[in-house]
Design a protein that fits this description.
By secondary structure, the chain is an all-alpha fold. 85% of the residues lie in helices and 0% in strands.
């Protein structure tokens, strides 16, 4: 039966094996494969950045539209001397 020391030794072996595997993979990725991946990912990254900018622009437009509509509704409520149901004050 395995005791606590045996389990700790096994865990240490697994961790050291993982580290050496990560080191080997890291060096391989830093080589030609890493350069190829980086060159293929560059257009994807730029597309993502463009999509983020577009989404931010759309959200800004919606925020402005909602604010404009809210102001119009509040002005109409004020003119008609009514109060909307969702206001707490």
């Amino acid at each position: 039966m395995l005791d606590k020391k045996d389990i700790l030794k096994i865990e240490d072996l697994i961790q050291s094996g993982n580290k050496s595997l990560e080191d080997r993979l890291g060096k391989r990725l830093e080589g030609s494969l890493g350069k190829k991946l980086e060159s293929e990912l560059r257009p994807i990254k730029s597309d993502l950045a463009k999509v983020r900018r577009d989404v931010d622009t759309m959200l800004d437009l919606f925020d402005r539209d909602i604010l404009d509509l809210r102001n119009r509704v509040e002005k109409i409520e004020e003119i008609l001397n009514i109060r909307s149901q969702d206001k707490s004050n």
